[in-house]
Amino acid sequence: MPILVHLADERDSDKILSGGLKIGKWRKGIFFMPVTQDFNVSHQWLRELKRRGIRTYVGVYFHLSSDEMVWFGKYHKGHQKMELGKALSEFLKTEDKLGFEFLIDRKIKPKEIEKIRHLPQTLGWRYSPDSHNRKLGCACPICISPGEINGRKKREKIEPKERTPALREIIEKLRIETDEIEIGNLFSFLRTKKRRTDPEELRFIVESKNISPIQDLAMTLEYFRHPNATKMLTELCSHKDDEVREFSAKGLLSINRTKGLEILAKYKEDEIVSQVMKDFSTDE
User: Fold this and answer.
1) 101, 75 Cβ separation under 8 angstroms
2) Which CATH fold topology does 3-128 show?
3) Does the model's pTM come out above 0.85?
4) How many whole angstroms from its chain centre is CA 204?
5) How far is CA 34 from CA 11, 88, 103, 143, 277, in A?
6) Strands 69-74 and 30-34
7) pLDDT digit string (tens) for 247-262?
8) Which residues have CB under 8 Å from 247's CB, separation 6+?
9) Per-residue pLDDT tens for 88-140?
């Protein structure tokens, strides 16, 4: 079965894994792209979608049967309804693949989802596919064979590697950064791996006048394998913002389910926390 990718708000990851991809109130269906050898082409919509204000996108990878009926076409032109297999064939034969999109007018079920993956937040184009008058190249093993002279330089020119800042650099930038999207990008670096560092160094975020960085902190603390991560998440379970309490409750359960349930039992009168516990029991 073809593997496909839908770009979604990172904050919805848990809901998507448990409930699938649902069609929004003002949406016609679920947009997606096929996973091809060209990573940039498959995820080309990311930077354009970020202009809507979502800080961090993840890739939701799922499978569909080749005979599934979907809509296919370029974003500014008419779309045709056809079998997925035929749409994929036409897409792969197209020389300029930028600006194309696929759409299915039904929900994607949880069992159809393969995984959710963090992505570099600099993929793709903005405003229009030809806004910079250049095409995305292909760095696949067919176009640039292994062992080819200057192969690594060629691949990195087409698909530049995003440098992951050191922890100290991230924290110092968070102290002075005011742009919410950039703050979200910095937190996405922190979520790339588990850390044994004391997250108390990030406590200054709690005092932020804006709620978005605090939401990011609540989503990130579970990646710190340090006792103070549990302590800070417990404190944030009393925060006035609904999403901060939701992310904090999920973080506690992610770190240690048994201990997390014991802690959250103290907040069972809170509707948000109670729903997280209910969803957790349903998933079990």
Assistant:
1) yes
2) ADP-ribosylation fold (3.20.170)
3) no
4) 25
5) 23, 7, 11, 19, 35
6) unpaired
7) 999 999 999 999 999 9
8) 11, 215, 218, 219, 236
9) 999 999 999 999 999 999 999 999 999 999 888 888 887 777 655 444 455 55
